[in-house]
Amino acid sequence: MKFLKGCLITLMIFIGICFIGYFLFKNSVVNNLESLNSNVKRSWTNYTENLKERNAELSKQNFKNDSLKFYWNKAKSITLSECSKELEFNEYKINQFVMSDSLNSTLNEKINLSLDNYNQDVREYNTYRVRFPNSIIARKTDFPKDFNYFDYRYGVDNESKMIRKKKVENWIINGGNYPE
């Protein structure tokens, strides 16, 4: 009887330690996700503020190209709450026309730096969220599954990146050989 009581007490202590360990680990994962999520949102806010500053700078210059006016006006209506394909394509077109019209933007390096910070924060968040066993706990939270990268540079020609991106999207939809 004493042996049975000892086994039950040992089992109860073991189960208690496991529950305490689980809750401590869960709190750690949730706190880390919260911190990484806020870093991504802060970086995105910094990036969008730089875009608004760039747009204000461009508004002081004369546009030679009607297409640039169209995309510049469209940029005002695009929601800047998250990285979207619409925003990326619009920024690609604006950058393309700004470069072809030789309009000056002194903010390209500043925007590129904020974009690099955003992409780094996204990489850290996405990696942390999918790593085992964090992914088990993260599935039960309200945090986003992942954030999109903004694979783009300002002040340089990004046409090859856009072509490759379209090929990869087509590959995802239709399959076949992976595009090189």
From TrEMBL:
Domain of life: Bacteria
Its membrane topology: Single-pass membrane protein
Gene3D superfamilies for this protein: LemA-like domain
Location of the protein in the cell: Membrane
Stored InterPro entries: LemA-like_dom_sf, MamQ_LemA
Keywords in alphabetical order: Membrane, Transmembrane, Transmembrane helix
Tagged with keyword Transmembrane: yes
Source species of the chain: Flavobacterium seoulense
Pfam families membership: LemA (PF04011)
Protein name: LemA family protein
Keyword Transmembrane helix among record annotations: yes
